[in-house]
Design a protein that fits this description.
By secondary structure, this protein is of the alpha/beta class. 41% of the residues lie in helices and 17% in strands.
């Protein structure tokens, strides 16, 4: 994003032609060279924020944070170092399409960077005590919190004077968006294997001990199996079925030569897709340019590595979710790589769903905009105990 997106946006607009910029990326030597270059804007990725603040004198009066939600964790190093220099800033601007991707708790760190605790308090503990009560817990261990009655409205009221919400649909003409669920079904032998995996997971587990950690592990096993392959305890791949690959082939053929962007989650999914199709992975800025030039008919992308900030709308308008994710933030952000300003065609989002599996629960949670850790835990409990 820092290497390609902002550079392209600055050069695209006539009213920005006089803005000078320096991209602070690459090796330590290249970053140092970029910082020594005289410019109005210095563009840096969030991975280098800690290095920059800890190794250089701070003489900036304005900071713009694209994808502010990437600073949602108060325990992350990037938040801690930016918090240190926050009092030196005259202006700070945060941009995000998903301000509370997992829960309202995410807002505290983001708003703190904007107002240094003026609205939601100086400490996360005080914010939590004021607006939340324990939700999922195992005796004394609390796994999650839920908002108190009326907390959501009160939080929005407190931050309303420094937050502006703008929907693209309200200000620019957007193309049509079509979502489509493509169902596949395992045969009796494959489904029996899925059910056996699920039953084996119940052993040594009960309702009290399904916490956030092992719920995620169990969900991963079920999602992998639904996709058609599974890592065993030795990290070897066990192939179970090809139903999703068959459906993917039909969707690629139905695109009639139009480029398709395939979202995958597990490495074995990527490997199986690349073995069967002539697909290329979008990983670098040159890959992005190649996709946007229309030179990548079948592209693979991982939501966690490419969910934020990339402009991919010029290269195509079809997304196929081969494997689903519990992260509403990553799901929405990846879809927004194609469904955004500048897209000239109808955007189609396909979800390949294996019937009778956890896939059905994930897609329902995403459609309700209720995907996340809490839904994951509840679904795993229900699936394992049924």
């Amino acid at each position: 994003m820092a290497e390609s997106t902002w550079k392209a946006e600055i050069e695209k607009w006539e009213h920005l032609k006089d803005i000078t910029y320096s991209i602070v990326l690459g090796s330590k030597e290249k970053r140092e060279e970029a910082l020594n270059k005289k410019a109005l804007l210095y563009i840096i990725n969030r991975e280098n924020v800690s290095w920059f603040i800890e190794n250089h004198k701070w003489d900036f009066d304005t900071v713009v944070i694209d994808e502010l939600s990437s600073f949602k964790s108060n325990k992350a190093q990037r938040f801690k170092v930016l918090k240190k220099v926050r009092p030196k800033l005259k202006r700070i601007i945060g941009l995000t399409g998903t301000p509370a991707p997992n829960s309202l708790m995410d807002l505290w760190s983001e708003i703190y960077l904007l107002d240094m605790g003026e609205r939601l308090g100086r400490y996360i503990g005080g914010f939590r005590e004021r607006f939340f009560v324990p939700d999922k817990r195992n005796r004394e261990v609390i796994f999650s919190y839920k908002p108190r009655v009326g907390a959501e409205d009160k939080i929005y009221e407190l931050i309303s004077d420094i937050c502006v919400s703008m929907k693209a649909l309200d200000h620019i003409k957007m193309p049509e968006l079509i979502t489509n669920n493509v169902e596949v079904e395992m045969n009796k032998k494959e489904k029996a294997l899925y059910d056996r995996f699920k039953s084996d997971m119940v052993i040594d587990l009960n309702d009290d001990c399904i916490d956030a950690v092992n719920a995620a592990a169990l969900s991963n096993k079920l999602l992998q199996t639904a996709n058609g392959a599974l890592y065993d305890d030795n990290k070897a791949v066990i192939e179970i079925h090809n139903k999703k690959l068959d459906a993917l082939e039909d969707l690629i053929e139905a695109a009639n030569g139009k480029p398709v962007l395939i979202a995958y989650w597990y490495k074995h999914d990527k490997d199986r897709i690349m073995k069967r199709f002539q697909a290329e992975k979008i990983n670098t800025s040159s890959d992005i340019d190649k996709w946007n030039r229309g030179e990548m008919p079948v592209a693979l992308i991982h939501p966690a590595s490419a969910g934020h900030g990339l402009n991919l709308q010029q290269g195509g308008s079809i997304i196929i979710w081969f494997g689903l994710t519990w992260s509403l933030e990553l799901y929405q952000q990846l879809n927004a790589r194609l469904y955004r300003q500048g897209q000239k065609n109808t955007v189609i989002i396909h979800h390949i769903i294996t019937k009778g599996t956890i896939d059905e629960d994930v897609i329902k949670a995403l459609e309700r905009k209720d995907a996340g850790q809490n839904s994951l835990i509840e679904v795993v409990k229900w699936r394992l105990m049924e």
